[in-house]
Amino acid sequence: MRRTAVSLVLFLGLVCIAPAQEHVGGEKDMTGWKWANFVILVVALGYLAAKQGGPYFASRSIEIRKGIEDAAKMRAEADARAAAMEARLANIGAEVEALRKSAREEAAQEGDRIRQETQRELAKIQTNTDHEIASALKAAQIELKSYSGQLAISLARSKVRQRMTSNDQDALVRRFVDDLRTTT
Question: Is 25 helix (H, G, I), strand (E, B) or coil?
Answer without folding.
Answer: coil
